[in-house]
Every structure is written in structure tokens, then in C-alpha cells.
Amino acid sequence: MTATIEQKPEAPSITSNVRGYAERVRGGDMGALPAVLGLIVLCTVFAIMRPSFFTAVNFANLFTQGAAVTVIAMGLVFVLLLGEIDLSAGFASGVCAAVLAILLAEQGQPWYVAVLAAIATGTVIGTVLGVLVAKLGIPSFVVTLAAFLGFQGLVLVLVEGGTNISVRDETILAISNNNLSPVLSWGLLAAGVGGYAAIQLLRARKRTKRGLIADPMSLIAIRVGALAVLGGLAVYALNLERSRNAALVSLKGVPAVVPIIIVLLVIWTFVLRRTAFGRHLYAVGGNAEAARRAGINVDRMKISAFVICSSMAAIGGIIAASRASSVDPNTGGSNVLLYAVGAAVIGGTSLFGGKGRVLDAVLGGAVVAVIENGMGLMGYGSDIKFIVTGSVLLLAASVDALSRKRAAATGLR
Amino acid sequence: MTPVLELRGIDKSFGPVQVLHDVALTVRAGEVTALVGDNGAGKSTLVKCVGGIHPIDSGEYLFEGKPVQVHSPRDAAALGIEIVYQDLALCDNLDIVQNMFLGRENKRGIVLDEDTMEEMAARTLASLSVKTVKSIRQHVSSLSGGQRQTVAIAKAVLWNSKVVILDEPTAALGVAQTAQVLELVRRLADQGLAVVLISHNMNDVFAVSDRIAALYLGRMAAQVKTSDVTHSQVVELITSGRSGDLGLTNGVPA
């Protein structure tokens, strides 16, 4: 048979890639575009209104401020991918942080035991939630709403009615308070950019060799170049001296949470994009019945998603405990959950399931951190912050719903 | 030549309701067998019995001449029987390759072997002379109804299947797309597969089928060569279970 599928309507080039992207955006598949644009607009506005926003100190603050919410949002992406929701992720992180603090402060356990116990607590929580949703068939909204209240009470029980437990372990405190040395910071960037370039080039070469369509070299160069430039600027800014009194104590380098977030991002992106497990998550989120007929165990996928979400919430809780140097009844409470869901959705993860990336959580987390930070600098209180963040979440959800409608109309999704 | 799939004396009840009475069906390689019948005649139940979704109460199930036990869709797939249901069961948010390999991905270690899957998918689509899709990395959501049907059929033949059962593949399609899908159905049979086509549309049935099996109220009214019957005879078989000396006499096969 000589007929071949028309795989190469045009030679892949930058123009065809740009055109393809523009078509997708017009068709409603905006991806991370709103988050990136929002980030640029917000940063510009805040930088003009409050020059102190655009300083090295504040730039470094953004990372430590946004880290916990970002990590929780990364976990939420997995649940949202299935079209489910976890409203208890915030207080789940609080419960896990309390477990960590109790083991450190009251039991005198070493940090790694406490960290493992906190993450194990998250895994157990996720298993219970997942089983209730998948096996009993209770809507996840109700299960996690109940857990939201229950965990709020559980945190109170653990910290014994409203006192707070200080965290003094140096390793835990280092997560949110220490910085990498400037040399190590540059090394990290070089490794990151080099690794990214190597993966892209190897994949392109392998595909070209087999006669498949590969990304053009120019596009790879642009991607790697953009990463190098943006990363370089960030590392340069973070390597500036941030201390008011540099002679007394020096404060420079990339905050230690950044490599933690990058490692989590790389691991989960690999799981979602390169493993059968990730593929099946998307399939269940896209069409659960089709996935079931393809032999995928839908219940098990649901339980796994909740386990990942709650375990990531535990890591978020550890980061929060490190930043506050303590755990109190409000750890993981108030606006943490709203911010985390907001981060995932603002980044482009759909509330309807089947669409989303872990990177979305990081981009959305940045937007949330910038809003929180910038509004604080402008001197607004919690009242205005709540209203604005709520509005931004609603806006993101509207963009999601509208782009879905538009996609249905144009046949692209 | 031994038929690929042969059913004899199949009975199937759901509680007190007997849906299939003593049904016999023969499906041969290289032929399109049209399965026709009015609503409620038992077409879907029969297909689900073949696919292992419903266990049969009694009767013989022969595959390539040998009696087999089919208890689950997995058993049917292992024999090489693939069913394309009317709702297609495709994931809109995945691309063509991802859909074709869903649940049976090629892996190297724990990593998906995308390149091999892409090549195999491209080869399968090429062997079916599918030329209408722009890129096999397109999301299924951007495909037309006919293209989706094509992907679902390609997914079914990807696995060296021997019997492909299509449940009303043209029901939701326009004229041009129907022609495309029927052409594809014919090509499958010409490549040596046994194809079972469930359809309500007499034009489609006469356009592609080699044999027609007509169900009437849960009984096989007749299984005839398409060239031996006329349009109106088939309609009579569907609506009254008999036509001249063909079909059921007093509700029992002649």
C-alpha cells in the first residue's frame, strides 16, 4: 500500500508552530497565557505604584511567600485533572504540619523522621478521601468539605486548643529561611538549562532519525534561550546582597525552596507526560467511561490522585511550618486553600477535568504570591486582599468556562 | 473454510425476560456480515455476548472452529475480537495516537515509548488509506464525526484483531462521511478481517455487506447472502420475521 497519512502538510518551522499556537489560543485553548499576561501586568502595576516591590529583597520574599501555596496547588492539579476537587487540602497540610511539629518539639525526633511521618499522614488522609470518593461514590465536594471541617478540628486537637508549637529544628527552618550560595545558584541554573537543552535536543534527534516530525532547531533554541535569560536574570537578582547590614549578616543567593519546587515540578511533569499512569489520569479526566473500557482501573486512578494531592499538601505544610517557625491552629487555614485552588486554575488547569499541567500551579502560584505581596506593600488590609483574591479566582474560573465554551464551538479543545 | 466466529443455540435472559432465543450466527473472514433487526430485536445484546460483556446462558461459542469461553471483554480482546461501540469511547483531550493505544501503551521501562506508538499508529492509518487527518498528534476533539469513527476503527484493528464489530458506525454521519466510513469497512474485509456491521440503514447494508443476518424478536430470522435477497425482502424479515419461504414459520426457524 503506497498511500501514506499526510503527516507532513508543511515542513515544521517556527512560523507553523506560532500559527498553530495562535490557532489554539483563538480556539479557546489559552493554556498558561492568562497567567503569564496577568503576571506581567501585575508586576508592572505594582512596580510603578510601589518601587519597593521591585527590589531584590522583595523578589526573594515572593518565593518564600508563595512556596507553600504553590506546592499544595501542584497536588491539587492531579485531583482537578479528574474533574474532582479537594477542599480539605489546606487543613490537611495543617494536620501534617502539626504532626511534624509534635514529633520535632515534643517527641524530640530527628527531622527526617518527622518529615516522613508528616508525608505519611498526608498519604493516609489522601487514601481515606480517595476511597470515600471512588468506592462509596460520595461527591468529592462533599467528602472534602466534611474533611475541611474535620481537619480544622483535628489541628486544634493536635496543637491542644490554640497554643502554638515552635519549630526549632535547623534543617526544617532552612527550607524557608536559608539561601543557596551564589556559586551554587549559578550552578543550579547551568544544570537546569543544560539538562533542559539536552532533553530537547536528544528527543528531536531521535525523532528525526526515525523520520517523525521533530521540533525545529530554532524553536528549541528559543525555548532554551528564554529559559536561560529569564533564569539568569532571576539568579542575578537573587544573588544581589539583600541584607541591610551586610557586614553583620550576608543575605544573598537563591532561596532554598526554589530547588525543592523545581525538583517537584520536574518529577510530577515527568509522571504526567511520560508515564502510562499520567496518560491514564488524563484519560479518566477526559472520558471516564472510555478509560474504563480501555481496561484502566478508574477507582484506583481516583484514589491515587487524592493520595498525591494530600501528600503534596503535607509537603506544603512542612514548608509553611518552616516559614512561620511554628505551627498553630491556623496553619493551612484561612485563605490557603482558596489561594491553592486559585493558583491551579489561574495557571490554566481546568475545573472540568482532563486539562492541566503541574507547571500551571507554579505560574498560578506566582500570580497569587504577587497579588498577596503587592497588595501588602500597598498597605491594604485583609479585607481588600480577600475580595481581590476572590475576584481573581472567579475571573480565572470564568476564563476557564468561557474558553471551554469557545472550544466546544470551534471544535478545538 | 471454517468461519472465524460461530455461535449456535445462544440463549440469553435478563431475569424473567428472555432476550435471545436459540440464536445462530456465522461470521467469516474477508466478509462483511450485516446484523439487522428492529429496535429491541436483540442486536446489542448479541454483540455484548460476543464481546464478553454479558455471559451467555447456554449455547456454543466457537472461535476458529474451537469452542471457547468468553467471560469478559478481556477474553474477547485476547481472541482478537474488537467492538467499536456507537459512542466510540474516545477521550477528547487526548490525541489520535494516545487514544489508539489507551490502556495498552508501549513502554520502555516506565517511560512511554511515544515514537514507536506514533509509527505504529501512522502505519495502521496508512494501511486503511486514511488520508483525511492532518496530523496524528491532533486532539480528538478537533476531529469530525467521520474522522472520529475512523480513529475508533483504526484503534480496533491496531491489535491484529480478527473480528471487528461496528455498532451503527454511520448513524450520526453526513452523506460524504458515511461514504468514507463504508469504504473503510469494505477495505477491512478485503484485508481479510471478519467484519460485523450493525445498521438500520438498508442502503449501507446493501452497499457493503456480503451476508445479512436478520434478528426478529430475539430469534435469528435468516442469515442470507446479500446478493440473494432484495431490499424489500430484508425489510420484511426485519419487520415480520419472514419473507416468502425465508425466515421464521410460527416463530421457529424454517
Automatic annotation (TrEMBL), chain A:
This is Xylose transport system permease protein XylH. It comes from the Bacteria. Its main location: membrane. It is a multi-pass membrane protein. The keyword Iron does not apply. GO terms for molecular function: transmembrane transporter activity. InterPro entries: ABC_transp_permease. It is found in: Cell membrane. The keyword rRNA-binding does not apply. The lineage of its organism: Bacteria, Bacillati, Actinomycetota, Actinomycetes, Streptosporangiales. The chain crosses the membrane at residues 31-50, 62-82, 89-105, 111-134, 141-159, 179-199, 220-238, 253-272, 303-324, 336-354, 361-380, 386-403. One of its GO terms (cellular component) is plasma membrane. Keywords: Cell inner membrane, Cell membrane, Membrane, Sugar transport, Transmembrane, Transmembrane helix, Transport. It comes from Planobispora rosea. Part of the binding-protein-dependent transport system for D-xylose. Probably responsible for the translocation of the substrate across the membrane.
Automatic annotation (TrEMBL), chain B:
SUPFAM superfamilies: P-loop containing nucleoside triphosphate hydrolases. InterPro entries: AAA+_ATPase (IPR003593), ABC_carbohydrate_import_ATPase (IPR050107), ABC_transporter-like_ATP-bd (IPR003439), P-loop_NTPase (IPR027417). It comes from the Bacteria. Keywords: ATP-binding, Nucleotide-binding. The keyword Cell inner membrane does not apply. One of its GO terms (molecular function) is ATP hydrolysis activity. SMART domains: AAA. Pfam families: ABC_tran (PF00005). Residues 5-242 form the ABC transporter domain. CDD domains: ABC_Carb_Monos_I. PANTHER family: CARBOHYDRATE TRANSPORT ATP-BINDING PROTEIN MG119-RELATED, SUGAR ABC TRANSPORTER ATP-BINDING PROTEIN. This is ABC transporter ATP-binding protein. It comes from Planobispora rosea.
